[in-house]
Amino acid sequence: MKNKQLLFVLVVGLVVLGGCATTQSGKESKELTETRVKESVDNRAFRISVDRVVPMSGRSRNVTSNYSLTVRNDSVFSYLPYFGQAYSLPYGGGVGMTFDAPLTEYNLRYDKKNNAEITFRTRSADDTHTFRIQIYPNASATIQVTSINRQGITYYGTVDLKEGE
């Protein structure tokens, strides 16, 4: 009988210790993610992979292609889909939200919850765009784009935290 009780206590102890170890590594992982997100935002070197698009008038759409927005130093590399109404476009439809361009009026600030709020303007071949990006410590992100010749659109995704990016 004592052996069964001793075995029970050992098993319960191992389960409790294993649960504590998992919680600790989860906390360390969360802190590492927060640190890497902050570093990439502060260095103006981040890439947001987009998985959902919400046009101003229309329904939300999940996207499966490798759509992304990359900010590197003073440039933006936009490879984003566009669903919405265009007010004025060049013949052939223009470049839409797929372009590489320099940034202007770049502003970064952190709110009380340590969420990064980034705003900047850029000009593609056929339009001027204002970007408002919110990046959260858990690496999720929201991109709102307002253009002169198109309806506004919102993108949701995550910051890529792969080594070397």
TrEMBL record:
Keyword Signal: yes
Lineage top rank: taxon: Bacteria
Keywords: Signal
Coiled-coil positions: none
Record field: transmembrane: none
InterPro entries reported for this sequence: DUF4251
Pfam families listed in its UniProt record: DUF4251
The protein's name in its UniProt record: DUF4251 domain-containing protein
Taxon lineage: Bacteria, Pseudomonadati, Bacteroidota, Bacteroidia, Bacteroidales
